[in-house]
Amino acid sequence: MGKIKHVSTDTSIEDMLAILEEDAGLIIDDFLSLESIDAIKDDLKPYLNVTRNGQDEFTGFETKRVGALMARSKTCQDLALNPLINKMADSFLGPHCEDYQLHFTSAIQIGPGESSQILHRDRGVWGGFIPRRIETQLSTVWAINDFTQENGATQVVPGSHKWDKNRQPLQDEIAYAEMKAGSVFIYTGSVLHGGGTNNTNSSRLGVFLHYAPGWLRQEENQYLSCPPEVAKDFSPELRSLIGYSKGGYVLGFFSDPEDKEGKLESVSPEKIFGESRDKYEKLATPEDLVKESTRK
Ligand SMILES: O=C(O)CCC(=O)C(=O)O
Ligand SMILES: [Fe+2]
pTM of the entire structure? Predict the structure, then answer.
């Protein structure tokens, strides 16, 4: 069977990145405290109780998905902002963008009797238009209960990020992200993976938080999931991470349609919240801007 490497929170970022480069997936064991796991369960319960199962094969007829996790769970906010994970996202996505952003939040609960999801690459959300040399996602799956091969642990094919796009894995090349509650599985947008079969009588629950370059459209629309009246209570760091900031000199600016005094005209979204910062406000030189418009 394929194998996913396990590391600890003490492992160096360099070693973790080396595994990601080789396998495009790894597990960091025992990351979360019991209190955090319980808090997430409590936060998600009211939504999981009322959410319907998926309506197609991909989202799973026995699987529930709950989004808007930044608006719905303070503990999920902490996970999204976790310094180690953000350091990894920065290192992994850094060569492909000026800034990365939170791209997708979903609690995925695979229920008893669910069958395997088709193996896929998450970079497919952009329709396959992005050249493979660009890495599109650094994704985290936080185990809220134990992930086992029997209850639907995510299937992953280590190394398949380097494969020809049509190559399919043999059964023994598929690994399962088996891990204890509180561990986190990290994988990239380029690796084959999919939800597993649940042959048990209880559900498997994971919190999926994905990061992507700031210049790409987000899979989950954060401005609607966390509108300004909700985001005003977030920390400036979280607001910036979900997209209430610019991603380049002019990328992502806005103008307040109600403003008749010229105050919020062509400015960074950070200004809605009274913040003064805008790291892209100053243009180095017009020549630099033009030079960077084509990297290679
Ligand atoms: O639930 C899982 O383990 C994986 C889900 C997944 O990969 C997806 O829906 O894109
Ligand atoms: Fe996926």
Answer: 0.97
